[in-house]
Amino acid sequence: MPGKKIQIVIVAIVALVAYLNILPNQFVIDDKMFIHDWAGIRSINLVADLKGEVPDIHKGVYRPVRTLLQQVYYQLFKENPVGWHMHSILVHLSSSLLVYLVIKEIATRFKLRYKNLPFFVSLLFALHPIHTEAITYLSASLEMVGVPFMLAALYFYLRKPKFGKIFFVLFYSLAIFSYELTLVLPLIMLGIEYFAGEFQIRSLKKLAFWYVSLVLIISTYLVTRVGFLGITSRGNYLAYSFYHTQLVMFQVYVKYIFLLLFPFKISYIHELTPGFESFSTYYSNLNSILDLSIFDFRVVGSLAFLLSLAGFGFTIRKKIPVLAFSIYFFFVSLLPVSYVISQGIAMSEKYLYLASLGFILALVYLILRIRRQKLVAIIFILLAVVYGTLTIMRNFDWKDEITFWRKLTIEHQKSSLSFYMLGVHLAESGSFNEAKTVYLKAIELEPRMVEARFNLGNIYLKESRQAEALEQYSIILKLDPNFEAAREKVKELIKSPSI
Q: pTM here?
């Protein structure tokens, strides 16, 4: 195997090559809202950033460092997607290299004899396709900037070089004010101490600075966010029920593990229960959530699997501590998005960006335990080729809004939201005939979707099909009497001599 420096260069090249094809991609989903529509991005305003100002639809999050980065990038790149995607690649490149450094320190702590463990972990981290949403999707990559900051803080904690304490405080402060997922760092640090067998009461004095610093940084963040600004949570529990939300989350955790093992059907949308997708909308089937019971087969099966995995980790904590730590790391990294506090999105692949490190560490460790070196080499080559191919292919799905939503209509043929959004972007591009087709499909799947009916009615007006337009507007007012735009359209059409 190549030396450390060559390994680092290989990881860097692989991370770059895997994501170079995102540079021509356009803005998708929330990108346009942040970069084109939101006036707050057009100038650097530190006071507004510290107050947590974001577009209205994103109220409930507090990420001032992310907002500052957006404002700086806007001064540099304006609305040129290439510059923004360079940020995405840089985030993943820095994360992959920091994974190498962190795993090297962890391997030392756990006294592992596999000297190539950091290389293979960072290589598979750089290539795993589950990371595409976190990196290829620009708005998500701006959140993920907190991950390399957190990994840098963890590295300085483990390495403890000269001036390490200063860098630890600096990088963790940047991390937590970038992305709340990094709140888990204290638990990760404690997990390393515990599973490596180095956590002792008498050692607390030596570690006092590090943990007191964490308490102060996290307290500052929470007091600022909750105490001064009153920013608590975003969204509601699924079907407005904490209990039923947790029944869903048991299944979500299992889906996450399945996607990490078999990343062949990764998607922006996941159906949690029939008619209820990753995030709640006005048209979500609440009854499919409320009908769930702790005794349902899928719920019981998911809970049993998760408890078995946690129990297995506890059982092997002394015999195979690094494997137990990997399991612990996976679950701990997902705590901020476990929906104990309502958050708006129940399942998102971007949430696995940090948690995947636990899975990859376990996978690499188990492969390296195989005694036949040629077989080990073949397995890693196959994994690298498969992961890299899937990542590059998935990046093309994010090319532009039409490509993105068209792919989702193929993957989720019962998703009215996907068909509606495809219709919106087809109409914006002037493809009105196809837009009509997908709007009609959205209405077929969800007859209550007044937005699709309104847009369809507008297309009918462009085609001088006033009677059909009036029919859609009239149905809208029956479904939603407060839809004023439809009411105005009806008034105009009734006065029209062609009706």
A: 0.94
d(C-alpha 324, C-alpha 224), whole Å = 35
Name the DSSP letter for residue 34: I
Distance, in Å, from the CA atom of 409 to the CA atom of 407, rounded to the nearest integer, reads 6
Tell which residue, 273, 272, 12, 269, has the closest CA to residue 123.
12
CB 216 within 8 A of CB 184: no
Q: How confident is the model at residue 499 (pLDDT cuts 50, 70, 90)?
A: low
**For tokens 């050692």, what's the residue?**
203
Matching residue, tokens 């990542």 = 391
- CB-based burial label for 156 (10 Å; 0-12, 13-18, 19+): buried
pLDDT of residue 451: 95
In angstroms, the CA 327 to CA 365 distance is 12
Q: What percent of the chain has pLDDT over 70?
A: 98
223: three-class secondary structure by DSSP: helix
Residue 303, number of CB atoms within 10 A of its CB:
17
Question: CB of 345 within 8 A of CB of 279?
Answer: yes
Contact between residue 273 and residue 248 where contact means Cβ atoms under 8 Å apart: yes
State the virtual CA torsion across 201, 206, 209, 212 in degrees, nearest 10: 0
Residue reference for tokens 């980790």:
313
Q: What is the maximum alpha-carbon separation in the chain?
A: 89
Confidence of residue 105 (pLDDT cuts 50, 70, 90): very high
pLDDT at position 205 over 90: no
In the chain, helix, strand, coil percent, each to 5?
75, 0, 25
- Per cent of the chain over pLDDT 90 is 80
**φ and ψ at residue 269, rounded to 5 degrees:** -115, 140
Residue 277's φ and ψ, nearest 5 degrees, are -100, -175
